Amino acid sequence: YKAHSLIRHLQRGWNFLRPERNESFDILPASQRVSETQWYEGTADAVYQNIDIIEAYGPEYMVVLAGDHIYKMDYELMLRQHVDAGADVTVGCLEVPRMEATGFGVMHVDAKDTIISFIEKPADPPGMPDKPDFALASMGIYVFKTKFLMEQLRRDAAEPGSSRDFGKDIIPYVVEHGKAIAHRFAKSCVRSTAENEAYWRDVGTVDAYWEANIDLTDITPELDLYDRDWPIWTYAELKPPAKFVHDEDGRRGSAVSSLVSGDCIVSGASLKRSLIFTGARINSYSTLEEVVMLPDCQVGRNARLKRVVIDHGVRIPEGLVVGEDPVLDAKRFRVSEKGICLVTQAMIDKLGLQ
After folding, report:
1. Residue 268 and residue 342 in one domain
2. Helix (H) or strand (E) holding 328
3. Of 40, 100, 148, 255, which is the most exposed, with the fewest CB atoms less than 10 Å away?
4. Are residues 39 and 161 in the same domain?
């Protein structure tokens, strides 16, 4: 686990926070805080091992979030529901078609959205009282009163058979022994006028990560990056604009339905439905389709890439073809369940190409 690039990104992208106004964040990467051999063993354990730091701040309530989800949400509305209901835990839930909920942890609720039971990946998900064809799937977002959460974490840490996980251990226990409330995402999601539905994506797999990025190339994507009323903050380096050069048949620098970041040079290459991070150099006669390319990559001449995720700093050799022969791709690269190729520099080096 190498956390440096993530820590650097957070420090640079969120350095506008004002500590004197009680705006700040601490970064606590995986470490051995309770023993010399024990790293974070689960989502709940990651919080448990930092109890001393949390209690030193003394917050009255805690909002626990997942780091691999994409959505826009006003947490204040969920916190308000939690306080008004006097709940032990409030669980953020997403309405999904009932038969599509088999891959989620599903909340069985009553008419007041009190959680009756929590079912992990049920074969026959329970429907919602007011929408029987839909089910409430857990988003992995939780609100607790801090004192109550600390008690539950200490209790769970003493359980020898626990997996130290919120979804598998903490939440089912509270549902059975306490008061658990479901918060429907539709009540607190933030949408611009261009967004027709509530947007939420789990990008914990290569397929999901690729899909979430490629979705942004749609004419009207489901996630509005251009919403000025609710901007998505990130670290934007000061880089020169992207440049497209050469205008000849077969050698025309172009991009259609694509997002190309600053400091990129598309030199006589063709891009379609692709998302290119900063600092890319894409050379002549190459074609890229449905490619997600991380920063500082180079693509040699005559390369053909399709349905690929390219890792940071990869050097694609001249003439390399990826995404056209599934059997060959599987021998050389990591191929996902849906056929997306993940390409790293170590994989390229093994090919022995120049």
Report:
1. yes
2. helix 326-332
3. 100
4. yes
Contact 290, 279 (CB under 8 A): no
Task: Extract the tokens encoding 58.
Answer: 């003394």
Alpha-carbon dihedral 254, 256, 260, 264, rounded to 10 degrees: -10
Angle at 137 between CA 309 and CA 164, to 5 degrees: 80
Phi and psi (nearest 5°) for 130?
A: -95, -10
Shared domain for 167 and 265, answered yes or no, is no
Per residue in 139-183, pLDDT (tens digit) is 999 999 999 999 999 999 888 888 899 988 999 999 999 999 999
Measure the CA–CA gap between 149 and 62, rounded to whole angstroms: 8
Task: Tell me, yes or no, whether 31 and 170 share the same domain.
Answer: yes
The model's pLDDT over 283-338, given as tens digits with 9 standing for 90+, comes to 999 999 999 999 999 999 999 999 999 999 999 999 999 999 999 999 999 999 99
What is the mean pLDDT of the segment spanning 79-85?
97
Do 18 and 108 lie in a common domain? yes
Q: 234 — alpha (psi -120 to 50), left (phi > 0) or beta?
A: beta
Number of neighbouring beta carbons within 10 Å of residue 231? 10
Separation between Cα atoms, residue 307 and residue 333, nearest integer Å:
13
Q: Is residue 227 part of a domain?
A: no
The residue segments making up the domain with residue 323 are 243-351
Return the SS3 of 55.
helix
| Residue labelled with tokens 């251990």 | 169
Look at the block and give the residue holding tokens 């990651």.
46
Three-state DSSP state, 7: helix
- Encode pLDDT of 249-292 as tens digits: 989 999 999 999 999 999 999 999 999 999 999 999 999 999 99
Taking the C-alpha atoms of residue 336 and residue 205, their distance in angstroms, rounded to an integer, is 9
Q: Structure tokens of 302?
A: 């005559």
| 212 found inside a domain | no
Which pLDDT score, from 0 to 100, does residue 29 have? 78
